[in-house]
Amino acid sequence: MNSEQKIKKMVKEKYGTIAQQTKKYNQISCCGSRRGYSNVEFSITSEDYTKLPGYVPDADLALGCGLPTKYARIKRGNTVVDLGSGAGNDCFIARSITGDTGRVIGIDMTEAMTAKAKTNASKYGFKNVEFRLGDIDNMPIENNTADVVVSNCVMNLVPNKKKAFSETFRIMKSGGHFSISDIVLKGELTDELRKEAALYAGCISGAVQKEEYLQIIRDTGFIKITVKKERKIDIPNYILAKFLTIDQLREYDKSHVGIFSITINAEKP
To answer: N or C: which end of the chain has fewer CB within 10 A?
Structure first.
């Protein structure tokens, strides 16, 4: 088993467990990571979906790091694909916008998540939403299918991001666009601090530098790349204090170094 396969196996197992947990439990981080910090009682990355049209509480596991559907410019009748669809949260928001003439497809590599999403769709009688089991870097979707692609805090978990964005490009129609929320890094974190932060917010473990992330998107062939929102993820001082002096802590707080949630839009020519 190579390194990519090991990472996928680990992510699949982790999210299989998360699928069985409650939203409250998962709000510890975008990846439901509690290890070592079980006393943390607030969400550090996820944003509030409850006021968005089409919101389904059963599908909200607090696993995201943004609101990609808010910036996705979805129109009635569109075909929307959600990468890493989980329990169906973003899919159900999208279907409320596409209407009955539209179509929404969710892709997820975790059997338990896909089963949960299908159960939710059946429970609410959603006929224009389907969920498929598959990898983002090898999607079970035909070429030129999607008008819009959305994804929420998932690409950072994919070991081969170049392949994942290439697949995204393949399944999109010419003139289609995506809105992706994800975790990136800015500046260099020490290995020790990054490791400790990964325990606190597990989803950062696969994150890359913001500029590298944007360059992958450019190299794939996307155009009109725009960062719609950027938000620094706060790491509590009691974690930072293990590795930084008081003066360094003050400097860190003022700096642009750290872990960030970004929402990016881009188009396929």
So the answer is: N
Q: What tokens were used for 175?
A: 């003139």
Question: Which burial class, exposed, middle or buried, applies to 268 when counting CB atoms under 10 A from its CB (0-12, 13-18, 19+)?
Answer: buried
Q: What is the mean pLDDT of the chain?
A: 82
Q: How far apart are CA 106 and CA 15, in angstroms?
A: 16
Partner residues linked to 78 by β-bridges: none
- The number of folded domains in the chain is 1
φ, ψ for residue 178 (rounded to 5)? -125, 160
Q: Where would I find the H helices in 149-209?
A: 161-171, 191-200
pLDDT per position as a tens digit, 56-85: 988 888 778 899 999 999 999 999 999 999
Q: Is the distance from CB of 172 to CB of 268 less than 8 angstroms? A: yes
Q: Output the domain CATH number for residue 32.
A: 3.40.50.150
- Token reading at 268: 């396929």
Tokens of 51: 């006021």
Number of C-alpha atoms within 13 angstroms, CB side, residue 109? 20
Query: What proportion of the chain, given as a percentage, has pLDDT over 70?
Result: 70
For residue 230, the surrounding DSSP H or E stretch is strand 223-232
Q: What is the DSSP letter of 140?
A: S
What angle is formed at CA 82 by the lines to CA 46 and CA 165, rounded to 5 degrees?
95
Read off the pLDDT of residues 133-190 as tens digits, 9 standing for 90 and up. Answer: 999 999 999 999 999 999 998 998 888 999 999 999 999 999 999 999 998 988 877 6
* Residues of the domain holding 133: 3-267
| CB-based burial, 113-124: b 16+ in 10 Å, e otherwise | bbebbbebbeee
Rounded to whole angstroms, how far apart are CA atoms 159 and 138?
13
**Dihedral, CA atoms, 32, 37, 41, 45, nearest 10 degrees?**
-50
